[in-house]
Amino acid sequence: MLENIYVVRHGYRSNWVVDPQTGTYSTTVKSPTGIASDPALASYGVQQAVQLGEHLLQVQPPVDLIYSSPFYRCLQTLSPFTDALADRQAKIDLSALETDAPTHGRKVRVNVEPGLGEFYGLARFDHPSPASIEVLNQHFPRLHAEKSPIVVPSKNGESITQLHDRVAYCLSELIKRADADPSGPKTLLICTHAASMIAIGRALTGRMPEDETEEDFRCFTCSFSKFTRRQPGKGVEVDGDWGQEASWDPLEPDEVPDIGWRGGKGVGGGWECEINGDCSFLQGGEERGWNFEMERQRIAKLEQEETEALTKTNGKYATLENKQGVDSQDIDLHDIVTNAAQSVQGITEEAEPANGRHD
Which superkingdom, per the lineage (predicted)? Predict the structure, then answer.
């Protein structure tokens, strides 16, 4: 049975631009997958990933099972760790072969799951999808994707409530799979994004604040969090069968089941947070943190710009949706364009020092 879950956020990434009127994404740095909104890590993010990998090789208990968002930056963040882990296992296997000893090592594999993917908010245009597993396999070894994913975020975007339910549903299924795995994994590692990392903490513990913008679970770039499973009889009482009855239907992607994780219950019987967004192993420490208050401010700013634009054009300006998605986890609000008719643009590696802190 699964006992520990480690959660990390991807490293500092390159950037893209989205036109808020058309939903067209573009970038000055070509994405390895050919998808503008699927950038690689910036050079500083690569350094962070190496430091994170060194930390993950030392954590106890060791990682048994790995899941990741399908976006390139998350898989790239895991690469230094999985490469080192594979090298270590190869040496163990070689030594065992030379001595005729049995090998008990696990094959290093990164399971790709869309349900752990990015949060884009709501918009009138379709949100971007990650690359296919066939494309990703050209860039990363050791990937695996189930034929049928647990859940796929709606292309129409999500509200903050829907994001939390999507993440909770995904986690519930992941934990079920791990518990049923005959190899008996004890520790799961997840690599994801800022908003999803916060939602994971809330879904595991069952602690959803009344104010969703409350700063509770920390999500700096390449930060590390640890959750341990509650012992029976501790925390909020739940039914013996904690698994949900409803299942996500790909024919109705917007309808993600609410599995009743709130009120302190949590998914999989509930978990406690032992380490919250640790960055002590990173040379730059805590950088580019994010919270849902920043999303609320971004939306309010866009609404104000829309109102101003309508006033200036006597109501002839084509209005924007209230909650268009622009991967706001990595956007500095001070750098959002001041005219809603222009593109909403984030920070590029060239525009700001890679170790610049997020306001």
Answer: Eukaryota
CA distance 9 to 5: 13
Characterise 282 by phi-psi region: left (phi > 0), alpha (psi -120 to 50), beta (else): beta
Segments making up each domain of the chain, as ranges: 4-303
Q: pLDDT under 70 in the chain at which residues?
A: 96-105, 233-245, 313-359
Map tokens 């710009």 to a residue.
305
Phi, psi at 354, each rounded to 5°: -60, -20
pLDDT in tens, 291-327: 999 888 877 887 787 787 777 766 654 444 333 333 4
> What's the start-to-end Cα distance of the chain, in Å?
40
Give the rounded distance of the alpha carbon of 29 from its chain centre. 22
Could you tell me how far CA 109 lies from the centroid of its own chain?
A: 18
| Secondary structure (3-state) at 228 | strand
Q: Which residues contact 164 (CB under 8 A, 6 or more apart)?
A: 199, 202, 203, 208
- With H, G, I as helix, E, B as strand and everything else as coil, classify residue 75: helix
pLDDT of 182-230, one tens digit each?
999 999 999 999 999 999 999 999 999 999 999 999 999 999 999 999 9
Please give the CATH topology (third level) of the domain spanning 4-303: Rossmann fold (3.40.50)
Q: How far apart are CA 318 and CA 206, in angstroms?
A: 41
Least Cα distance to 347 among 359, 335, 329 occurs for 335
